[in-house]
Amino acid sequence: MRSNVLLDKCNWSLLRIFRVIVQEGSLNKAAVKLFLTQSAISQSLKRLEEQIGDTLIIRTGGKFYLTATGEIVFEASMMIYSQLLDYEERLNTEKNSLSGTIKLLVLSRIESRRYDQLLHDFHQKYPLVDFQVDVLKSKEIQQLLLQKIPALGIGINQVLHPKLNYHTLINQKYALFCSEKHALYTEDVQSIDKIKGHGFISFQSEQLNNPSSPLSEVRETILKNNKLLVTTNNMDEVIRFIKSGIGIGLLPKNIIEKNENYHLFKQLPPFPYVSIIPISLAWHKDRELSLVEQYFINELRSVFAAH
Question: What span, in angstroms and rounded, lies between the C-alpha atoms of 87 and 94?
Fold first, then answer.
């Protein structure tokens, strides 16, 4: 056997297959164990022997025997397997022993299946970690984070502050809606300029009140031809009044689409949506993060990497 061939050229996945072949006593049983075809097992053994530069198994009379080189390689594969099992156990112990509190300052009505699944998976990995969650307005979240309180924030950030780190989680698409009880439900409206003489349900929030927001611009366009009928700072009340046919209003599309009465709502122009409002994770750049916060941020970044 050539010097250092196990270190320099050996494929560790082939070693694993070789270990299972020896332990199972046949190529066929190894194939069943590894959910591979017998042909794939044979090819893997052949490739390993080519890498090692020597025969590992002699097959005769329906049985096989390890060569002297095969004995050495099998012993090496068992040592590697044992060490990996030990490392795996240590990693699991470290994860299971991770404890502490994650304080979250969050915007209300965050609708995201991926976020919900992340919370579930994070708890499964780190059952000793607990959460403290405060629901606040986005402006309040930013103010508290700037005070370096030990917390992570999830909210809307129209203006990015230079002292905070941000990572976009969800791009909420806002659209204009009416319900089946409203006159516009049966009309073919293709332009917002054609919407006249109706009531408007106004959701008072930072994304609407900010003059630079695209939602604010559309809101003002609507109010030129329609009457402000209801004002509320609660999204559920906006949905209630729209559903009742009292007026039209701006809402996140994903919240309406997940509503059990989604079929009762109709999207109005402009299409495909009015604007995208990002929801972001934020934390202070100069605050030292706890270990549990670092793990949580890494999980969030991984799950929402596509956004």
Answer: 10
